[in-house]
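Subject: sequence -> structure tokens, single chain

Hey, anyone have a minute? Need the predicted structure for the following. Not urgent.
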Amino acid sequence: MNFLDLLKFSVAGGDVDRLADGDVDWQDIHECAKQQSLLGVVFRGIEQLPERMRPPRDVLLTWYAEVQRIRLSNYKVNENAAKLSAVFRKAGFWSCVLKGQGNNLLYPDPYTRMAGDIDIWVKAKEGDNIRRCVDFARKHHPDGMIVYHHIDAGMFCGTEVEIHFRPSFMNNLVCNLRLQQWFEAEAKEQFVHSVELPDGAGHICVPTNAFNRIYQMVHISNHFFHEGIGLRQLVDYYYVLQQGFSQEEQRQEERLMKRFGIYKIATAVMFVLGNVLGLPREQMIVPSDERRGKLLLEEIMLAGNFGHFDKRLAGSHTPLKKNIQRLKRDVRLMWLFPSECLWEPIFRLYHFFWRMRNN
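Reply:
Had a minute. Here:
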């Protein structure tokens, strides 16, 4: 039994006897789960193992303590997400919490997903949206860095916050224009899609499943081409697809993915979801592609969650070195994902002038 075998069992279930019994490197499995920010998800699988297949007591107790911290963190972030949503309502904004606490609700146990910051998409009810978002953020966090789709808003009751005036973006400026038009057309429905958080934490607005099938694929694509993506984001997408969709939705969203330039990365994601997490073919939103999927999986296992464990990025702390590393990444990925890689240097130049104008 290795990390990927246990992850598949933890997410998709199945016959425990299919897991190899014998010598298991639990320290390695624990480290992989930690690097992929999946400690809680994998521990849920461990709880379903017979006693003879569980890790040694010291590993189990350490892991259990970590999972309890994840649960407590989710309690806190749930409450803060509800409070923050109320703050924006009072300030005259529509708001919608992206990923995070909304994705938690799709998991069998909403407290096993590792909590992070709060990404909140907001839209001013009147006035220039970007300017109002920037002014609101800097009123509370004067040094907040602005990028094309969000601004850092500092800490809110102990949780980091990013205020999004756009959910995400693509490097390809043509595809990005189409994507931003789609976001705008779909925004109203997302800002009224309210859900109740567990244990009376309050209510927030989160994207619909239909919106998430596009948006979260864009999010995966964006991070994959910029610094790296982890299995946690693919587990999120697994549970998004588990909510189901009609044949008409599948046909429409496949067309949208091609129009927005995310179709090729989506075929790679389907390969990983099928082969690593056990997603059935009928639940895939597009066909899977083995070549692209194997490259994606290799990058995921090398880089860890959001590329934080990518040894190839060691020493790239200055802006110049970061840009050189990104160009190397573009070259490495270009043969299978040419559009985003070729457009990336152009978008970077566009983004430089955009930040100068909007800072």
